Every structure is written in structure tokens, then in C-alpha cells.
Amino acid sequence: MTGITFRPRPSLIEGYKHAGGWVVEGHLYLPAMRITRTSVQSFRGLTLDAVGAGHLPEDTTLLLLGTGARLLRPPPALVTLARSRGIHIEAMDSAAAARTFNLLVQEDREVAALLL
User: What DSSP character marks residue 35?
Assistant: First the structure.
């Protein structure tokens, strides 16, 4: 008999509340929010220009950066920092980043999203 390994169900973004936050597993997380397949963390009041080393994920090579209601370019210093850690940043509006995160995590990809 061979053993079967079950992976924990990944965290998914269930929606956005007009009160100003993202819903993950029934809990409301205020922007900014970083999510991986196994963790969620809020960074209240974080702006694109203030994103730094402490906001980058440690366990992935792809970060979906949701820049709010519309696509904004990430600061060059942030891109350089992420690359130095082996992380590729894909910037998009936050709704697109949330949808893309859910799709990729369900494909068992190692991905993180930072939604501002």
C-alpha cells in the first residue's frame, strides 16, 4: 500500500467588500494585504511608494502586485530589490491580481499577491 499525501487547501481570495477590504476564508483583511497559498497578512495604510523588503514574500518567485483600482508602475527600487531576491513582480490592478492569484494557486503554483 502506498501512502497518500494531502496538501492543505490553499487560501483563496473570496471577494472584495466595499467597506475597503479583501475577504479570505471568511475574514476581512484591510488593504494592503499579502497572501500566499498558506498565509495572509495585512499592512494597513501601505502605499506603493512605501513597499519594501518586509512586504516581499519569502517563499515564492512570483509576486502579483495589485496597485489599486488601476495599474501603476512599481518603483524601480522595488523591482531591483525583488529581483535581487529572485522574485519577479507582475503589476496589475488589484482586482486582476486577486483573480490571477486564485487561478495560479489552484494550479498548484507558488505565487503570492500584494494587494494595495
Answer: E
